[in-house]
Amino acid sequence: MMEDIRVVIGESKFDVRACGILKQGDNVLTTVESDGTHTLPGGAVKIGETSKEAVVREFLEETGMKVEVGSLLSTIENMFIYEEKPYQQVIFVYEVFALKDIQSIIGEVPMEWINIMASHSLRPPQLNELVKQATTKTQHFINKEL
């Protein structure tokens, strides 16, 4: 079994994450974390796996949906405190398209459709603007909360 690209270095944690923006009308699909935070469906990239492959796998695991991955929309350097310790991620954010009509979502984690224009609760916060944009030009963001 392939391991996640996730390491502990001293007191800090580091991982590589990949996620996708799946839109339906004026809404975007989000996952709801245990603390109520919304983020995009996705997760840790595994050793030997591309970030695109990780998005396909994570969407299937989390939503039960088969998706096609489009353009790389953003890379985000995300630095924050998690469980009172420094955490750093490199996040690849892709546009994602469902391969079938979206009927129901059956997955491992709580999901919620949120209105794109009203979104302000996505973490990291740069995702709130990213989901509103129509461009497919790759952007780079830094979120430093340390």
UniProtKB/TrEMBL annotation:
<dbReference type="Pfam" id="PF00293">
    <property type="entry name" value="NUDIX"/>
</dbReference>
<feature type="domain" description="Nudix hydrolase">
    <location>
        <begin position="12"/>
        <end position="138"/>
    </location>
</feature>
<comment type="similarity">
    <text>Belongs to the Nudix hydrolase family.</text>
</comment>
<dbReference type="InterPro" id="IPR020476">
    <property type="entry name" value="Nudix_hydrolase"/>
</dbReference>
<keyword id="KW-0378">Hydrolase</keyword>
<protein>
    <recommendedName>
        <fullName>Nudix hydrolase domain-containing protein</fullName>
    </recommendedName>
</protein>
<dbReference type="InterPro" id="IPR000086">
    <property type="entry name" value="NUDIX_hydrolase_dom"/>
</dbReference>
<dbReference type="InterPro" id="IPR015797">
    <property type="entry name" value="NUDIX_hydrolase-like_dom_sf"/>
</dbReference>
<dbReference type="InterPro" id="IPR020084">
    <property type="entry name" value="NUDIX_hydrolase_CS"/>
</dbReference>
